[in-house]
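Protocol step 4 of 5: obtain the predicted structure for the target chain.
Materials: sequence only (see below). No template structures provided, no constraints applied. The aim of this step is simply to have a reference model before the mutagenesis design in step 5. Sequence pasted as it appears in the construct record:
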Amino acid sequence: MLSIFTGAGGLDLGLEAAGLGTIGCVEKDTDCLRTLEVNRPGWKLLDTADIIDAAVTLRPRDLGLRRRELDVLAGGPPCQPFSTAGQWARSGRRGMDDARANTILAMLDLLERFLPRVLLIENVAGFLHGQVSARPFIEERLTQINNENRTRYRLSALVVDAADYGVPQHRRRIIAVASRDGRGFKHPDPTHADFPIRAWDAIGDLREDHLPTPLGAWADLLPCIPEGENYQYLTARGGGEEVFGYRTRYWSFLLKLAKDRPAWTLPASPGPAAGPFHWDSRPLTLRERMRLQSFPDEWILTGTLNSQIRQVGNATPPLLAEVMAREVVSQLLKRGQVWATPPTLLRHRSECPPPPPAEPAPVPERYRHMIGPKQAHPGTGLGPAPVTAIDV
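Step 4 output (structure tokens):
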């Protein structure tokens, strides 16, 4: 595998668990590079660290290969031009017009340079689905590559929820696969849709000495919200006092984990009021974030704390990557491959403790002047361009 946009190595870890070796990494973030060096010194960190430069200079022979010998080109291009958060701001609805989308052009240039057996992409749901989707551009470019190189690349893409495959986190991502010989790819059926791995299963046994303290103007409201709920508990339609208008804040505002459910999506750059927070009304520790992303406990992140949180939040959950990579191997690379053991799953732990029986704390005095009737948001709450998670 040639890894592009490697980040903290989440996608690579999953492919490694499925038997694929990383022979080169294209990554320019210095903290991510250090993370990869510390954990996998055998992975070659390419001198051409920028994908735009690599698209011009990197050749198969640089990795000891000939054209068409690479098995997999894998990565997740920068997602900001296609993210859900970006769609709420008109300045963010640029898609392929965003300068950061040049990395997609570079990815496809590398595809044509190497002509691997499989292209594997992980990204946010909006990457190939929605108003500013990159799909039309990518399909047009694949057609050009096919016409000029006698290949048959075509995308097979599906929006999946990582929690449906055993990751203790709801994380909707698109997994796209294109095989050089045109063979279709069937995404694996969900294994945990009815019995997901819960937040309690992932982090309930952790005992850490130094727990983070909530910061910011709204920190003292966290004890006023039950576990598994967000600021909407403090609206006219919630069970608490009316501090905010219904749906006037973003969903993750003061959002708390529920022990008996998977976590909500972990952001890469959370603000002080952006959850998910621990059910004990505090920010999550770094190790808790890594568990909820399915990273192994021995994986070490480097850089500042903010950098490490960003690396975790930007990563592909290794378990999701492993599940998908096993299918890539058995369907497209080594047909009929049978796995002797299941993927590296977290297990359901002991009976999950119930929420505290006591009522949440009352609204502190400093916020009480805000209590009173509020106007609800007039929109639908589904964003500027509601979409359905379907096979695309």
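Step 4 remarks: The CA atoms of residues 59 and 113 lie 7 Å apart. The two ends are 25 Å apart (CA to CA).
Proceed to step 5.
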